[in-house]
Design brief:
- The structure is a single chain.
- Helix content is about 60%, strand content about 15%.
- A hairpin with a 2-residue loop joins strand 2 (about 140-150) and strand 3 (about 155-160).
- The protein has a three-stranded antiparallel beta sheet with strand order 1-2-3.
- Helix 2 (about 25-35) runs antiparallel to helix 7.
- It is an alpha+beta fold.
- It has helices at about 1-20, 25-35, 40-45, 65-85, 85-100, 105-110, 115-125, 165-175, and strands at about 130-135, 140-150, 155-160.
């Protein structure tokens, strides 16, 4: 999964660079973030029928779409190890992007706050980290507090029932604090 994620990032970066040579780095980074997002990977995994090949404990509370994306990354890593970079690149471009990815639709969708913050930080050459400050279980569900640090300075904090949700809220708060987005209702 780790290896597949890295290979996918590389293939997507090269694919977008060649497909949109006149786009700036920020635009390409934003598009890459959308293409390799959990949502996009889950859609691609579902489209190729990866769910039928996943074995998991149905008693656990787990989102099958997350498993599909993870399994797709693992499959990409396995293809790379078995056949090499050029073959996995062809598989990704011809069997995933060409068949299951609508780039025009992805271009028009709004990007999530965490990805926006990563893009903004990269553009400004800042060191961004998400830190889980606290995990609590209230008997029914888990709750997480996530903190954004930029260049070792604390910024936004978010609380959610998943680490991802907490990070999204912390990223949104940070983008507001930095003046990148406006507080709604102003």
């Amino acid at each position: 999964e780790f290896l597949g994620d890295s290979i996918l990032d590389s293939v997507v970066a090269e694919y977008l660079f060649n497909k949109y040579p006149s786009q700036n780095e920020g635009s390409l980074t934003k598009l890459k973030s959308k293409l390799v997002s959990r949502k996009s990977l889950s859609i691609m995994g579902e489209s190729i029928g990866i769910r039928e090949h996943i074995k998991y404990s149905k008693g656990r509370t787990i989102q099958i779409s997350t498993l599909e994306g993870n399994a797709l990354e693992a499959l990409i890593g396995a293809i790379y190890l078995d056949r090499g970079y050029e073959i996995v690149k062809k598989v990704i471009e011809l069997h995933l992007f060409e068949k299951f990815v609508n780039l025009e639709k992805i271009l028009t969708e709004e990007i999530d706050f965490k990805s926006r913050l990563y893009i903004w930080s990269q553009k400004n050459k800042l060191n961004l980290e998400f830190v889980v400050k606290e995990e609590r279980h209230n008997g029914q569900f888990w709750e997480y507090d996530s903190l954004v640090t930029i260049n070792d300075k604390n910024y936004g904090i978010g609380t959610g029932t998943s680490k991802k949700a907490a990070e999204q809220l912390a990223a949104k708060q940070t983008l507001i604090l930095m003046g990148v987005i406006e507080l709604q209702g102003k």
